[in-house]
Design brief:
Order of helices and strands of chain A: HHEHHEEHH
Helix content of chain A: 55-70%
Oligomer: homodimer
Shape of chain A: elongated
Largest sheet of chain A: 3 strands, antiparallel
Structural class of chain A: alpha+beta
Largest interface: A-B, 54 and 54 residues
Number of strands of chain A: 3
């Protein structure tokens, strides 16, 4: 359902579900801080995920072309390296801007200082 | 999989999935800003949701006792009023604190100023 911010101020439509899922938020944050990429095993440790979970989330991010995955050999052992693409970084920055708005709205609402537009209209 | 923040700094375990889901984040933010509650129809408008979607998310929040739902009559018409419980508000404030941390980590990582703990250890 598409709606304008005026009509539905709390729809938070810019919260791209690909980034908003908790595990993927951790994965993308880890990769954003490591522009040269991270080994699968290191990423797994940083995000506290199992092999299966990390693989599944990486596949979703790779399909959207937000993440690139390369398989190489290092010291005769196969190493899978994951990195954020330029597109992924760009979209993640946009996502974070919407997340910041959502956080501000939540903080304002819970602090009791802000009243929602609905109440303001009724007042 | 449970892990300490030191072992898995980007696991973001405090991001309660009940609040983190995009539609529910909008619902709870709307209710937090209206302590006296909101009519189902008003909440639906503010969050840009369909009847079915809003009902489904409210049921999940009610089951966790984060939201209370009351059915009354107003001007001879049935009105469903939803409000955040004290427990819901308390947990939502905790969720927002973790969300703030996640946002800061994301902003730091994408700004290129912060390096992740993994890289810091290798340097």
């Amino acid at each position: 359902m598409t709606s304008s911010p005026e009509a539905a101020p709390f729809a938070f439509e810019g919260l791209d579900r690909l980034f908003h899922e908790r595990a993927r938020l951790g994965i993308v944050t880890s990769l954003a801080g490591n522009p040269d990429g991270l080994a699968f095993s290191e990423l797994k440790r940083m995000c506290g995920l199992t092999d299966g979970n990390l693989s599944r989330h990486l596949a979703a991010l790779e399909e959207a072309e937000y993440v690139a995955i390369a398989k190489d050999m290092a010291a005769r052992r196969p190493v899978t390296t994951c990195r954020l693409t330029a597109l992924g970084l760009d979209r993640f920055v946009s996502y974070l801007a919407v997340l910041e708005t959502a956080l501000k709205e939540g903080t304002r609402a819970t602090s009791g200082k802000g009243r929602s537009p609905a109440v303001a209209l009724k007042a």
